[in-house]
Amino acid sequence: MEFSFEKFKMPHLETYSGEGDPSEHVKNYFDIMSMLQVSEAVLYRCFPITLKGSAKLWCKCSGEEIHQQFSTGETPFRLTYGAEAVMPIEVGMPTIWLQHFNKDLNSLGLRVSLDLLEETREKALRTQVINQQRIAQHYNKKIRPRRFMAGDLILRKVTFDKDTWQGKLAPNWEGPYTVTVELRAGTYRLRGPDG
């Protein structure tokens, strides 16, 4: 089933302004969007619509990082250092994370997350491989493999060459060529019309 972003109607979601627990908003967003079975691209494009105020500003500042987070489930910073990055704009804002900050618990949490960093990287890698396989499977649905046997007549696509370019009315195909032998899958030795 092909998805059209133009025909997509965004469901009603509560907007997040940066106050309260951001993970709760993200969880609600993913739960609702997963019921609609939308693609990752739609998830990424629609997420800023659910934000307002300082949260929307933060999203604009870190757009590429958010896209990476949707595709692997983790941000590049977390995969490198084992902790989430704090944007400079977030330091001066009163958030729940800063209000309940405990230095001892924080250093213990950082040590635990560093111990689990390798597992986090492996999980992100598995997610990335699954996404790549899904994309390849979608792309390969449109490909029709063709096999040629020795003696088959085929046409060869003309490649662009500056020296011999004849303009846009030049033929796109040349031949016929005769297949003499298959070297490997999809690669053939050809004999021209002149021999």
Structure explained in plain terms:
This protein is mainly α and 195 residues long. It folds into two domains: 119 residues, no CATH class; 39 residues, no CATH class. The protein is 46% helix and 11% strand. The chain contains nine helices and three strands. A hairpin with a 2-residue loop joins β2 and β3. It is elongated. The two termini are 48 Å apart. The model has no long low-confidence stretch (mean pLDDT 76).
Strand and helix map with partners:
Elements (H helix, E strand, L loop, with lengths): L21 H14 L4 H7 L7 H8 L1 H10 L3 H6 L6 H4 L4 H4 L3 H13 L1 H24 L12 E5 L15 E12 L2 E5 L4
Antiparallel strand pairs: 1-2, 2-3
**Over all CA atoms, what is the radius of gyration?**
27 Å
Q: Compute the separation of the termini in Å.
A: 48 Å
Largest sheet: 3 strands, antiparallel
Q: What is the number of independent domains?
A: 2
Task: Please describe the structure with a list of short key phrases separated by commas or semicolons.
195 residues, mainly alpha, 2 domains, 3-stranded antiparallel sheet, 3 strands, 46% helix
Describe, in short, the structure shown.
With 195 residues, the protein is mostly helical. It contains nine helices and three strands. The protein is elongated, with a radius of gyration of 27 Å.
